[in-house]
Structures are given as structure tokens and as C-alpha cells.
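Input C-alpha cells:
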């Protein structure tokens, strides 16, 4: 018999606050939609109202549900979905998100019979309507996302909930411990938790999760888009034939970090002469703002959206990657990448995608979101650690310019490919674990 999750005073208070916050959420969505129209799409779904009203009501177990909050989690989910479809060719996917970029990316994963909706706000009523609407066979939450009412109501309805590719950094662990009366029962209600690393497993256990296994990081199984990589190789070869400067990428830059880079480029003209700098902001709503920052710093701006069939050759200008879904193109075009989110205390962005493209990474001091992957990559010689932006820029220029640096760069590129091959396998292991759990709960692989 499925263990019931009881309503505690702490969850009762949380539920009351979540219900009272709904007008604030609606206002936030309206404001976000000004810059990102995706937030204005299907707003009633955010509150548990789905259309058409009879969708998904032909019995328990027709959906495998995966929740991926935003863009990064959705890319990890894509790797898992591919492995699941190999095992369950008739799988019907229910895909949920919280952010517009996640939903846009997730749309690429859908096949006939699949459904994509917003995850409901975590009120009792909204989550109950979601469950009544879809009745999934299993819920897979990606990486970090847990919601007390959602997990409790699904568990009480006989829907197992699992946390896949699970991670928990030190900051989040401290926050969960402070919220123990809510967090501990929520983590404890999960049917399975598959952690990325032993350190993640330790922290997750510390906040009440029953960690089933350590399966590694799904993102190591990423396969860069072949067409984009082919295009990158052609562009890179063309730049080399014309004896143009090597490309250094600032990948997934976050607010405040572009200003650090631009300030150093103003102070160090040699860095501008040594490389063609390419900036790709993490959030698409900042593309125009970053273009303005570059112009205000006195540099020309060449935007990817205006390139056409090949990058332009404009001396003294900076390239701006203002497109979605083309990170393999940017990584493949570049000799080395500075990793955004690591030069301000933001925890760093995903370095694995860069290494999958054979592009070594230069990290700043802040990588707590990808701490183990970062440390292992540095130890393997596939990544480099710097104290600040000044050191990172100097190292990048040294790697792409000096004869000794080129030798070091080639070695790092080889290590990046070797490092990735050594850490693959999480997708197959996680997909197998999901199929096994579904079968244990009486669901066919012909879902």
C-alpha cells in the first residue's frame, strides 16, 4: 500500500501562503511577458486549468510525466527522453515547465500523442486539478525541483514521484535544512532519488531524501547537433584560411559579467588584437541590453541574427550570439570558452556542453552549481581555473596566441573529448531505473 503524506502544520501554512500569492504571480507573469511573450501563453494552466477539458481522462497510467523547470533542465531531459523512447517506443510524454525558455526548448521533444503544459502553481487546488486531468503513471522531476503540495498530492493519488539527475549544492542544502518541517517530508515522499554525485547524495540524504543510487550526470551524454558542428567547422576553417584571429567565447554570460569583460578589453587592447571575442548571454531577454553595453563601451557590435551564411570580418568589433539553440555552433567555432556565471557568485553555468564540443573551458572562482564536474574537468586538464576575469582573459589570449599556448590548447582539446567519454552512461542507467520502477508499479513499457 502506498504510504500517505499527511498534512502538517508547516505544509498547511505553506499552502495558505501559496494561495495568497496567486495575484502576485499573475502580476509577475504579466511583467515578464513584456520582455518574453512566452510568459503570456496559456496562463490558466499555471493555476491548474487545462484545455481541452477532457484531455487525458481515459485512465491512470497513460502518461510518463517529466518536469524540467528551465532551459538547462530541459536540455538534460532531452537526453533522458531519447533514452526512454529507445526503451518505450510508444511512450506518451507529458512535459511541464516553469519558464518560457524551458517550454520553447521542450517543444522540440514532442511527438504525436505527447502533451506540453505549464506546471501548476503549488496550491492544493491547482495541483489536484493537474492530477485529475492527466493521472500520469510516474512523475520525473529533473535535478532540483521539488514542490510540497505537488509531491504530496501525487503520492497520495498513487503516482510515484522521482528526482532524476538530482543535485543539491551547499547553499541549497542550508536552505532546505532551515525549511526542515516542509522540506524533509517532501524529500522523504519521493519514491526514488538518483543523484549525480556522491556529494549530492550525501546532501540529499541530509535533508531527508532516500537516495536510491548515484547514476552520474545526464549532461555527459549530450551529443552536439551534427549540422551545427559541421557549420562551425566550416566557418572555423574559413577564418583560418583567411588568417583571421582565433575565436574566444564568453558562454552563457550573466548580468554584470559582460561589464567585467568589456572593462578589461578597454584596458588591454592587446587582448582585443589577440582574439575575436564572442559573447553569448545566458538569457535571451538580455540580448539587446548586452548589445547596448558593447556599443556603450566603444566597440562595434556584430550580431549573429544579422550574419547570414557566415560570420563577418569587421576589425575591432565584438560578436554577439543572439540566437537560441545554437550553442554547439558557438562552441565549435571557438578555440576556448570562458564560462558564464562563474565570474560573479552565481554558481557557474554548464561546462559539459562545451567539453562535448571539444572546446576547453576557463572557469572563474564560482562554480558551486557544477562543483564536481568543474573540479574533475580541471584535474583532467580539460578546464582551467582562474581567480578573476583578468586572469581568465590573459590565459585565453595565451592559449590561442603563444606557440607554447597552442600546444597546451591542443592537449586541453584532447582532454575535453577524453573526459566526456569517461563520464557517459547516466542516460541509460536512469532510463533503465525508470522502466524498472514503472514495471514494479504495474505499468507496461507500451505506455
Amino acid at each position: 500500500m502506498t504510504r500517505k503524506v499527511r498534512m502538517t502544520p508547516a505544509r498547511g501554512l505553506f499552502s495558505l501562503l501559496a494561495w495568497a500569492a496567486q495575484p502576485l504571480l499573475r502580476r509577475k507573469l504579466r511583467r515578464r511577458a513584456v520582455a518574453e511573450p512566452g510568459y503570456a501563453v496559456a496562463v490558466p494552466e499555471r493555476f491548474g486549468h487545462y484545455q481541452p477539458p477532457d484531455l487525458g481522462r481515459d485512465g491512470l497510467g497513460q502518461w510518463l510525466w517529466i518536469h524540467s523547470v528551465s532551459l538547462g533542465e530541459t536540455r538534460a531531459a532531452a537526453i533522458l527522453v531519447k533514452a526512454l523512447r529507445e526503451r518505450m517506443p510508444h511512450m506518451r510524454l507529458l512535459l511541464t515547465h516553469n519558464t518560457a525558455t524551458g517550454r520553447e526548448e521542450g517543444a522540440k521533444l514532442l511527438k504525436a500523442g505527447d502533451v506540453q503544459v505549464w506546471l501548476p502553481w503549488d496550491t492544493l487546488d491547482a495541483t489536484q486539478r493537474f492530477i485529475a486531468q492527466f493521472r500520469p503513471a510516474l512523475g520525473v522531476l529533473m535535478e532540483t525541483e521539488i514542490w510540497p503540495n505537488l509531491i504530496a498530492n501525487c503520492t497520495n493519488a498513487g503516482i510515484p514521484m522521482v528526482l532524476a539527475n538530482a543535485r543539491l549544492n551547499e547553499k541549497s542544502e542550508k536552505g532546505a535544512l532551515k525549511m526542515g518541517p516542509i522540506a524533509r517530508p517532501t524529500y522523504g515522499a519521493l519514491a526514488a532519488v538518483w543523484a549525480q554525485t556522491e556529494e549530492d547524495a550525501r546532501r540529499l540524504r541530509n535533508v531527508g531524501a532516500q537516495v536510491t543510487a548515484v547514476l552520474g550526470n545526464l549532461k555527459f551524454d549530450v551529443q552536439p547537433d551534427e549540422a551545427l558542428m559541421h557549420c562551425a567547422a566550416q566557418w572555423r576553417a574559413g577564418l583560418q584560411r583567411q588568417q583571421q584571429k582565433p575565436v574566444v567565447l564568453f558562454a552563457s554570460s550573466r548580468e554584470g559579467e559582460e561589464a567585467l569583460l568589456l572593462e578589461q578589453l578597454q584596458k588591454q587592447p592587446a587582448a582585443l588584437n589577440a582574439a575575436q571575442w564572442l559573447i553569448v548571454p545566458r538569457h535571451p531577454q538580455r540580448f539587446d541590453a548586452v548589445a547596448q553595453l558593447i556599443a556603450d563601451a566603444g566597440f562595434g557590435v556584430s550580431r549573429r541574427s544579422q550574419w547570414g551564411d557566415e560570420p563577418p570580418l569587421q576589425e575591432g568589433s565584438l560578436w554577439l550570439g543572439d540566437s537560441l539553440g545554437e550553442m554547439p555552433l558557438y562552441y565549435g567555432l571557438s578555440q576556448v570558452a570562458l564560462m558564464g556565471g562563474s565570474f560573479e557568485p552565481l554558481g557557474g553555468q554548464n561546462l559539459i556542453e562545451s567539453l562535448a564540443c571539444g572546446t576547453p573551458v576557463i572557469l572563474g572562482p564560482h562554480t558551486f552549481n557544477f562543483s564536481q564536474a568543474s573540479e574533475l574537468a580541471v584535474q583532467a586538464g580539460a578546464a582551467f581555473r582562474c581567480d578573476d576575469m583578468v586572469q581568465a582573459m590573459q590565459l585565453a589570449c595565451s592559449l590561442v596566441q603563444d606557440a607554447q599556448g597552442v600546444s597546451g590548447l591542443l592537449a586541453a582539446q584532447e582532454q575535453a573529448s577524453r573526459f566526456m567519454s569517461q563520464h557517459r552512461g547516466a542516460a541509460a542507467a536512469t532510463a533503465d531505473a525508470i522502466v524498472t520502477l514503472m514495471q514494479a508499479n504495474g505499468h507496461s513499457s507500451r505506455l
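The chain has 19 helices and 14 strands. Residues 403-422 form the longest helix (20 residues).
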